[in-house]
Amino acid sequence: MKPTIAPYPHGRFRRARQSEAIRGLVRENTLTVDDLIWPVFVRDGEGIEEPVPSMPGVVRRSVDLIAKAAAEAQAMGIPAICLFPYTDPSLKTQDCAEAWNPDNLSNRAIRAIKQAAPEIAVMTDVALDPYNINGHDGYVVDGKIVNDETVEALVKMTLAQAEAGADIIGPSDMMDGRIGAMRQALEAAGHHDVMILSYAAKYASAFYGPFRDAVGASGALTGDKKTYQMEPGNSNEALRLIQRDLTEGADMVMIKPGMPYLDICRRVKDTFGAPTYAYQVSGEYAMIQAAAQNGWIDGEKVMLESLLAFKRAGCDGILTYFAPRVAKLLQG
Ligand code: PBG
């Protein structure tokens, strides 16, 4: 490597760290409100805001309050909100038909947000787990998660979400072939502008625990998701999955979880240069909140540093439960 700084004592790296002004001037990466996608939990009822115990600071909101929260997020400049439904156990079935009910909780929330906050982009989740009696993202037949039948169901779910007004479809199921099938169906139905943000490299992670509480899937889930979510030891496989999903028609790709997988983010960004996102998942959020509540870390500083790290790793944006708090801080 050619020297890019004169040898000591003429060259001193500390000169560039001497004040906030100089540090700001030489900073390579910054976090802005444009980088945020806010995941939210929706439940039925009216005027309800109920805390999620394993995610301090996160609530499940009824549709009316989701619409209000989306309007506030829009006012703060948050570009996108991502919906996850807490489905009543009585609506969970073997065939998961509630998933493509045009009037299910998630689709009602999309319409309510579009009315209250027309400028914020609405992202959805495509997977069967909120509607499945056994908590899996795909159909279970004789103890196995079946791929192709699941993809057919996911396509119906996608079309119902697009009809309701979703801007960005977020398949989080990890079935093979779903991106191509969804893209084809969207095109055929005239939804040319609906984007797909593929959860392309989604690992079988223990960091999703608090989320499964939040959507009420923990009790339902039988077994684990290792036959469809990725093996945490793999890195090359992530690149092959991202390439496959981009080829099938994904507009944007996601790596999930976030902080433990920043090496994957960097490889993906460097290899494809596509719009790349990471999901700072529930367990990552819970760890930061728990340590902060105990006074063991400075929660605000750790939050900002953790999110900046995603930018440094090459991400264009981050799905984070911290989104409104960060947006408020960045607004000053
Ligand atoms: C399920 C889904 C999960 C998350 C988003 N969509 C959990 C899972 O795969 O079991 C996790 C998000 C989080 O932990 O914050 N389709």
UniProtKB/TrEMBL annotation:
It catalyses: 2 5-aminolevulinate = porphobilinogen + 2 H2O + H(+). Pathway: Porphyrin-containing compound metabolism; protoporphyrin-IX biosynthesis; coproporphyrinogen-III from 5-aminolevulinate: step 1/4. It is an enzyme of class 4 (lyase). GO terms for cellular component: cytosol. One of its GO terms (biological process) is protoporphyrinogen IX biosynthetic process. Keywords: Heme biosynthesis, Lyase, Porphyrin biosynthesis. The keyword Lyase applies. Its EC number is 4.2.1.24. The active site is at K202 (schiff-base intermediate with substrate), K256 (schiff-base intermediate with substrate). One of its GO terms (molecular function) is porphobilinogen synthase activity. It holds the Pfam family ALAD. PROSITE patterns: D_ALA_DEHYDRATASE. PANTHER family: DELTA-AMINOLEVULINIC ACID DEHYDRATASE. Belongs to the ALAD family. Homooctamer. This is Delta-aminolevulinic acid dehydratase. It comes from Ruegeria intermedia.
